[in-house]
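1st attempt posting a full record on here, be nice pls
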Amino acid sequence: MFTTTGSRGLYKAPLSKSLLLVLNGLTLMLILLPQYQEFFIYNLQALTQQKQVWRLLCGRLVCLDVKDSFCSSLLIYNFRIFERRFGTRKFASFLLGSWCLSALTDFLLVQAFQHLFDYEVEELPAGLLAPVFSLFVPFYLSIPRMPVTQILGHIHITNKSLVYIVGLQLLTSSPFMWLLALSGLVSGGLYLSNILWLQKILFVPAWLSRIARYILEPIFSSSQPNNETPVGMGATLDIQRQQRMDLLDQQLLLAQYNEARRNARPQPQAGLLQWTRLFPSLRHRGQNGPPMQPQPQAQTQQSAPPPSLNNSPVAEEQVARLVEMGFSRTDALEALRASNNDINMATNFLLQH
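the predicted structure (as tokens):
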């Protein structure tokens, strides 16, 4: 409920799956074979003074700390939505560009820290940490934020709160993790804004993408999840769909209420909270909905029946955008009709489910 990436697993995210399997596998192997951990230490002093350039690759790839590996894996799993939205090649190009830019930014920040505080940083936390932190930039800018609940009436919990909490946990796991976090955020912002045409300089070539598609993608690709509910799980497909529609109904009503307050327009109904006249309930649409209760004759004369959401036209451009993100056409049409063609609300609904 707190995540924003839904429950489709690693479907259409082979690169994210390969990073999770390979990097975590290497971390476990180094824990079992501690004599080889020395080769994967991100030692800046050995890199600059002893010219051990290979440490730049090994030290910024595999985590040596289990906590760092676990938190970074959770973040990669949540950020897999960008691979579905932009495609595997563009997602790999973003990771490659942010990895290269953060490698340069690491040295600049270390030199600035040494100049300001007269302290030489010899080692930094190992692992694919800076590119993971760089993914917070598109996460903050492109993923819509929807309120979920409140704690003590003042602390707002949104659908993005868990991701930020995991990022904060990773940030506080090591003394100089903040330096990698700052380096990742700066490199992610530079690459995403395409300053100095960085996206045309640092990218994955098309020929390499084709080779990986034919060799690596069949190994790490995941099958499409079915919509059937296993027997004994305690819920049927109709109940799950009903719960989804109830949640979306509450979010749409809240958005409609906020819009009515901002516009401050006189409403045709007698009370502001008579939401059945502002927006039809999503629980009554489709054949699986409960039968409509008969209304008195006087009440039916006062108010006309609300229009059906299924008859609202859906723009093909919005459907195409949702399909490009990795969703099926049926789910895209259903979400757009349910949200009155609001692309942001439909995207958030599909990401949550």
